[in-house]
Amino acid sequence: MLRLLPLRLTFEPEAAVRLPEYPGVLWRSAFGARLRRDACITGAASCDGCRVRQRCAYGAVFEPAPAPRAQGLAPRFRDPPRPYVISPVHGGGTHGAGQRLELDCILAQPALSHLKAAESALSRLELHGVPMRVADVRVRPPGGPDTVTHEPAVSAKGYGISTPPAPGKARIVLEHPLRLQHEGQPVGPERFTLERFAGALLRRISSLHDAVAEVPLEADYRTLVDHARDHVALRDVRLSWLDGERHSARQKRRVPIGGLIGCFTIAGELEPLWPWLWAGQWTHVGKGAVMGLGRYRVDHFGA
């Protein structure tokens, strides 16, 4: 379905640093700023109209142009999906000098084609002006051992996602706020349905795949969403809304990043949806996925 490179980076700040309540925004901004300084040769304010955009590491990762041969669902989206996820393991607050902070960075194509530039940028991040020294980099292959040594020549190919057999039921645990929208409005606990969750997940994964693949994913998306509604039960739903805001430099205002947190159980005929549900643990789902929102894990699955 997808080839991904899930990296777990361990940082040590050189001085005390205070992170916002949800620091994914800050980590993403730091990564983008460093990669842009390293890669941009024009100094232009925007990548729009840039003749080297397709070959530039920053353009490919943060402002990818629509692929000429994009297939499937990809052409339906106004902007191509960003081929990365920045997902902090540690939350906000003040972290002292030398205190270890972990960050998950998941790269897909075309970011994998610029792995060397991305790694170089990640190794020289600054948060609020504080240099973040990289203490360790590990790979966490999907479905494989917990971590393996990072070897760039191997990592650049990415890893396929090995999906275990579909169970009869599974528990989905939302680790970071999940932002879904329906008819332009945020989906709160009272409006959450598996149909809406599955629809967002299908759009996320298929757009990442189809934006770069020569052959689109073969899937009947409407049938899959209908299957989620008609043949899978939603049980033991324990969801609440977690508020949050961030500053948007582009919009020059505070924007919401709150979302659903908690867990729910699904049971029934999971097999058609299972590869998508399993893969979503690495792609994340919903709005703000690139900054780590919509992170979930599949837990306690069985008959």
Task: Describe what you observe in this structure.
The protein has 303 residues and is α+β, with helices and mostly antiparallel strands. A hairpin with an 8-residue loop joins strand 7 (130-139) and strand 8. It has helices at 24-39, 57-62, 115-122, 152-155, 194-210, 221-231, 274-283; strands spanning 3-13, 17-19, 84-88, 93-95, 101-107, 126-127, 130-139, 148-149, 159-160, 169-178, 181-182, 185-186, 232-242, 245-248, 253-256, 259-268, 296-302. It is built from 7 helices and 17 strands. The protein folds into 2 domains: 3-160, 2-Layer Sandwich (Alpha-Beta Plaits), CATH 3.30.70.1890; 169-302, Alpha-Beta Plaits (2-Layer Sandwich), CATH 3.30.70. Strands 1, 3, 5, 6, 7, 8 and 9 form a 7-stranded antiparallel beta sheet that branches.
